[in-house]
Amino acid sequence: MDGAVLYRDLIEINPPLIVWLLYPVVCFSQMTGMPLDVATRLAVGLLALGMTLWSIALVEPKMRWPALPLLTFVALVVPSGAFGQREHLLTLFLWPSLALVVRRARGDTVAAWMALAIGATAATGVALKPHFALIWVGTAAYLAARLGLRRFLQLPETITVLVAAPIYLLAITLATPDYWTVVHSFGPLYLNYLANPRWIFLLQAKFLAALLCTGLWLLGRGRLEERVLQDVLGIAVVGAVLGVVAQGKMFHYHYLPATSLTVLLAVSLLGRWRPLTGGTFVLLVLCGQLLYQQFTGEWRELNRRTGPRVEFEALFTSVVKPNDHVTMLLWHLSDAWPLALRLGGNYDYPMPSIWWVRAQYPRNYWNAGGGTYLRPEEMDATEHHLFDLTAKVLLTNRPQVIVLPSDLGRPSTHQQFDFLGYLSQDPRLKTFFSAYALEVEYSRWLILRRLDED
Predict the structure, then answer these.
(1) pLDDT of 240-261, one tens digit each?
(2) Residue 106: which of 205, 228, 211, 282 has the closest Cα?
(3) Which of 134, 181, 203, 304 has the maximum number of C-beta atoms within 10 A of its C-beta?
């Protein structure tokens, strides 16, 4: 990070584990010259294959060949536009744990070292996105009910997960103590960022598909002679769905664990319900609909973002010179990244996006007539801190190029949030912006260039 201190110089709301895991990938990219996004996809692809083969080795021998193409499909194809997101990684890390729960519940054993390794990967998955911890908790409770609590607590994988939690918290405190300051200062604001009422999830196709498949599992349990696998997957789906609801946001990638596990549950039920009954017909339709929603949703998201972005990147490249310092103040993370990676050390803003403005003014952003922004003296401590931080970055770095959000790409019925006017409430920034001229206005971007080139 070129000497920058994570959570002090670079403000990030996510826990540090994902940064630590990606650090070797960044080093590999720098050593080989491979683009970072390519190196990341390569690393995640290898992880997906490794976790798939590991999980296959844990299932009963007669099921390995049928399970191989299914798990490979779910690991590499189903994620689509969410490939490499933390939700994708945690799903992969939890697979061996789910396979081991099935194995243990059936009375089979594994070597102690294998159980320890599986416990470590499960702990890693939970630590990546604690909202989905209920996947592990639910399946662990199921195993404890079958084996007895005392025996369950003596299992190597259980001990590993339970010990890993305080170790991880201690590691955060020692390695990145500023993280707790960030959580305390900005955590409540982030909870308000794109928050939705919980009932709205009942209108989401992926959410309903997961609930429907879970309902079919519960209704059909009595018809299954051997149902351990279906029980474990069903409980995991419920945990994944609750993980989506717990976050309160409708980011498309939040559904990935639930979608992946629902596909596995549906196929496993189909494998048991071989006669063509109403249940199997519903499951077939469900699988098709779920995959359709996954891929068309990802495709729409990809087109929505990459369509204009391709043309913008061409404009951006024509405007930005090799040694220009650039500050991007944009609503969406994907509007600035991975484009900002091409700037190397010339990217000057310590946050990945200006999500904090959208969290502070949700009505202004989404609704027509949503009111005006606060004057600096009216802002609360958190908003004032971030407002001053943005002003300090601009005034100190005096970047050659500033990229700001434009509302040209949004429906005209929505009120435009005048971010330039918002910042210009500070007299210093009002003078500062007078030294810039509009270079490009395209779709949802404005590019300003400094008039003096000293």
Answers:
(1) 999 998 888 878 889 899 989 9
(2) 228
(3) 134
